[in-house]
Give the backbone structure.
Amino acid sequence: MTGARPLIIAWLLLLTAALAIGGLAIHLLRGQEQSLAVAAAETRRQSLAASAESISLAVAEARDTLAVTLQTLPADNLIDTLETWRLDNPLVRNVFVWQPGSGLLHPDPLYPTRDEERAFLQRYAELFAGQAVWSPPAADDPLISGQAQARRELRDLAKSLSAEVASAPGPTGATGWLPWFWGDGLHLLVWADQPDGRRYGLEIEMAALLSRLVTALPEPQEASETLALLDDHGRAVHQRGTADLSTRPVIAMATPIGAALPHWQIALYQDVDAQPATQGVLVLGGLLTLVLVVAILLGGSLLLWQARRSLRDARRKTSFVANVSHELKTPLTTIRMYSEMLEEQAEIEPERQRRYLGVISSEARRLTRLVNNLLDFSRLEQGHKQYHLQPVNLAQLVEHTLAGQSVLLEANEIQLELILPQNPVTCHTDSDAVEQSLLNLIDNAVKYAAEGKSLTVEMTTSGPNIEIHIDDRGPGIPASHAAQIFEMFHRVDNSLTTRKQGAGLGLSIARQLLRDLGGDLTFSPVVGGGSRFTLRLPGDRETGDNA
Ligand code: ADP
């Protein structure tokens, strides 16, 4: 655990650093997003204000032109001139002549000639009755942009020039204009005074004026936006953009046109589903940050995992050396003990002598198997293992190998049952490797399953394969370890393995040897307790003996 602590600390540091970078990046992105949104809103506000100014100037220009024309009209035959003008100019809806004190001289309030005149008289009854003041709004709203300022100056210049021209032949009385609200909306009057006190003028045709204004309404900056000119009732009189304004969507931003069209405004609508342009950049930024953080974490975790693995391997190798030394020492001690007894006891019964020699030879065989395992391990690790293939009578090989283990099995009180096929079973293989694998399996059965008191070795043929099943009635292997027991150095971590020596090599070496020979080694649990190891080899096709 002590070795793992620096790794955990390193991983935690890495995690903290990655999270800090991620957090900082998200914080910066948020700030960026907010300032971008503020800047975008300010740009839109300015653009709306500029459009409002444009419209306001367009109204004022139309109004001034009409006022100047009014001033140039000859005083004689004024009513006829005005009427002719009305018919010629689409901007003129109605004309009038009014005398303070006497009332309306034209159109005749008692005998209007047209419906339009009748409506006009009704609309302005209060004004012409002297009950309303003729004063227009004090001044246009203060202008914002330089461009609008320049246009306004130009307009003032044009106004003064035309006033000079007009002053020569005709009357030079005051002119003015008046916004007038009636049931259906806003109306505009433009008037001029005669030196004799008569006031005459016209009512602007709003539809004609509007057609001049629409060009001043710019295209919206984004496809998801719509700009609209709203009248004093909030009705859209003109729009640019695709929004359906009949559904009365929420206005994102609005600017009043000003005194030129009182209570009129330009409104901006935004499609709420559409992503603002800045969002794409922010999403990309967020994604890149995420990728960075994940890459740091993955890379770091990989390094730490590698370090952990190396640490585990180093530990396994150390315990492997300790285990192997111990395994070698045990048979050597037994051999030495028994040979010393034979040496020291001069008069020894032949029966006992035979038993002592049996133990010595069995321990010597165990030693040989251990050394062979170690040699195989290093050759397999380095890829230098060589096999000597030759026809092998497998039944004979199994019988012979088990005979060599009879003393060991007897000493552990294990009953052996050997079931071999009637016909000889041959296989083109390496007999030493097969024997080594078998010995490893029998040694394990003796070490871990002796309490089951029985060992069954059965050879069968299955299709083209030959199988040797080695069944014991021991404690079996927990399912969670069933696959891992074939890994190098893996030992099931229980009291049984603590009591028995082993380096965790036997099964991995046996499986590798058999796989190299075209076969395999597998494990399956035995019903009722115990383990079954199946050693499979490819049969000898040429002889066909295995059928
Ligand atoms: P070793 O015997 O040197 O520990 P092996 O590779 O031969 O190594 O076996 C791996 C592990 O599998 C053993 O440590 C033991 O826990 C388990 N094992 C192997 N054979 C048996 C068996 N017949 N019964 C119970 N457990 C077994």
